[in-house]
Amino acid sequence: MQFPNLMPIAATDAAVRWNSLYNFLLGISVFFFVLVIGAMILFIIKYRAREGAKTFYFRDHHFLEACFIAIPTILLLGIFGWGYSVYNSMMRPPADALEIHVIGKQWLWQFQYDNGRTTIGNLYVPLNKPVKLIMTSQDVIHDFFIPNFRVKSDVVPGMYTSVWFEARVPGEHQVFCGMYCGTSHSQMLAKLVVLNDQQWAEFQRGKKIGPQPDARLNLAAEDTTADPSEAQAATIEPVSLATQGRAVFETKGCVSCHSAGDPTHGGANIGPSLAGIFGKNAALQDGQTIRRDESYLRQVIEQPQSHLLKGYQQSVMPTFKGLISETEMNSLIAYIKSLK
């Protein structure tokens, strides 16, 4: 249950759980506010100073003291457990979640999809399927905020942050930048468009998707289809993000030093093989281990000396910081992730 007109619509399961916790906190706050203020007013009236009246002497009341300790403790532990459960579910995306790359820049949002499509200002996602956003910034700190999904995360230059959700309400949902990022911060907006299965399949094939209804206006509406005027529009089969990354791998010279597990990309074994490394732990020269995720790959591409692998005395790899764009970085990492 949510308070009408006070909260954005709950367009994900996480938003419903978040609302339940918020409403509980609001309700319990109102309850104790009325209890404390009511008791205070009652005591002011009942025990007000009167001529000839002697103040009653209170002695210890261990049961009351125990209640004052036990009840708040139980409530706070319950709220902590409930909040942790909601937070944990929001921070752990399913293994099969669709990955979409988000790039924040002054003052727009750019989105890259696994099929190779790129959109600006509109983020397209499928209905009732988990989606993971992998986000970075091209310039300053931004903040990706979808009120209807209760999803919000800083977008930081030079690193990756992520959020995930599973959209339950079709149509358009507003996206904001929640961090002041300069002159046109208030205009850094985007639309998240939730598509049904047919629309998503068409989008994957490269077809343009027409405007969708605002999700706030018709929550019970049937799933909509694309604009009939575009039904016969020619589709362009996009080149996958991993395939684009392979081109970056070749043009930037990575192939000359790194093996990609491909006979045509043998490499000179100057650097470590990239086949099957993503998600695995790597042993470093200082004895530590580190997980090879998106942030690790980005860091070693931009700062090769930051993580020297065991068995490699020094890094001869040049830095690519400033030499590779955010879109190229995303595609290159997608290619490395695809290697088996």
Brief synopsis:
This protein is of the alpha+beta class and 340 residues long.
What does this 3D model show about the protein?
With 340 residues, the chain is an alpha+beta fold. It folds into three domains: 13-91, Helix Hairpins (Orthogonal Bundle); 98-230, Immunoglobulin-like, CATH 2.60.40; 241-338, Cytochrome c-like domain (Cytochrome Bc1 Complex, Chain D, domain 2, Orthogonal Bundle). 31% of the residues lie in helices and 19% in strands. The chain is built from six helices and twelve strands. It has helices at 13-46, 62-91, 197-204, 241-251, 294-302, 326-338, and strands at residues 98-105, 108-113, 118-120, 122-126, 130-137, 142-146, 151-155, 161-166, 171-177, 190-195, 281-283, 289-291. The strands form three sheets. It has a five-stranded mixed beta sheet, with helices on one face. It has a five-stranded mixed beta sheet with strand order 4-10-9-6-7. Strand 2 and strand 3 form a beta hairpin. It is elongated. Residues 218-235 have low confidence and may be disordered.
* CATH level 1 name of the largest domain: Mainly Beta
**Amount of beta strand:** 15-25%
Number of helices: 6
Oligomer state of the chains in this structure: single chain
Q: What CATH architecture of the largest domain do you see?
A: Sandwich
Per CATH, the superfamily of the largest domain is Cupredoxins -  blue copper proteins
Largest sheet: 5 strands, mixed
Helix content: 25-40%
Shape: elongated
Based on CA atoms alone, the radius of gyration comes out at 27 Å
SSE order, one letter for each helix or strand: HHEEEEEEEEEEHHEEHH
**Low-confidence segments:** 218-235
Q: Whole-Å distance between the termini?
A: 47 Å
CATH topology of the largest domain: Immunoglobulin-like
Structural class based on helices, strands and sheet pairing: alpha+beta
Report the average pLDDT across residues: 84
Physical arrangement of strands within the biggest beta sheet: 3-2-1-5-8
